[in-house]
Design brief:
heterodimer; A: 108 residues; mainly beta; 0% helix; globular; B: mainly beta
Chain lengths: 108, 119
């Protein structure tokens, strides 16, 4: 199965700053089917980005995804207070689908 | 507006079978999409369990070997998960989800249900 490694584990930033989250796959992700999710305490993960760079409906344009093959990035251009959460990447191009271990974006 | 809601026992005894149902409202499950299950535990993070297509084809995570069965009930517009021979390691929040484009896709999730395996 494809192993996804996210870095950093924790990102300490202030509102208004730019966040850059990385997701590296152990092998190429089929069709670049790489998704990014946001999860807040007590809630289910929420889809932000699918197929590497497509924003899901209703997702603000401060969220953007990039990358292909084995290296992917989620960028939050200017952090809003509601963006402090845990972010997961998932590859769904190959079964079994797999998730990264998460990056926590916390308030500095 | 589509809504997914998990239901089932919150407590299961070791060696018994964990059974969950995901009831879908606002969309007919035999029209399209993949309907899947994902779990989340503190020790293992997020884990894709498997999915079933709108036509009934199943896709299972090999990690669950022969313990897993998924099914669709189009008359009730719900899909189900059955995981046998559970242990404490199966304690987790279980989510159902809908995915497009690929069996492991999970773009839209239910709220999740906590299942504890304990005697």
């Amino acid at each position: 199965e494809i192993v996804l490694t996210q870095s950093p584990g924790t990102l300490s930033l202030s509102p208004g700053e730019r966040a850059t989250l990385s997701c590296r796959a152990s092998q190429s992700v089929g069709s670049n089917y790489l998704a990014w999710f946001q999860q807040k305490p007590g809630q289910a993960p929420r889809l932000l980005i699918y197929a590497a760079f497509n924003r899901d409906s209703g997702i603000p344009d401060r969220f953007s995804g990039s990358g292909s093959g084995t290296d992917f990035t989620l960028t939050i251009s200017s952090l809003e207070p509601e963006d402090f959460a845990v972010y997961y990447c998932q590859q769904y191009g190959t079964t079994p689908g797999t998730f990264g271990q998460g990056t926590k974006v916390e308030i500095k | 507006q589509t809504h997914l809601q998990e239901s089932g026992p919150g407590l299961v005894k070791p060696s018994e079978t964990l059974s969950l149902t995901c009831t879908v409202s606002g969309y007919s499950i035999n029209s399209n999409y993949f309907w899947g299950w994902i779990r989340q535990s503190p020790g293992e993070g997020l884990e894709w369990i498997g999915s079933i297509s709108h036509s009934g084809t199943t896709y299972y995570n090999p990690s669950f070997k022969s313990r897993l069965t998924m099914s669709l009930d189009t008359s009730k517009n719900h899909f189900s998960l059955s995981l046998s021979s559970v242990t404490a390691a199966d304690t987790a929040v279980y989510y159902c989800a809908r995915g497009a484009s690929a069996p492991a896709a999970a773009g839209f999730w239910g709220q999740g249900t906590l299942v504890t395996v304990s005697s």
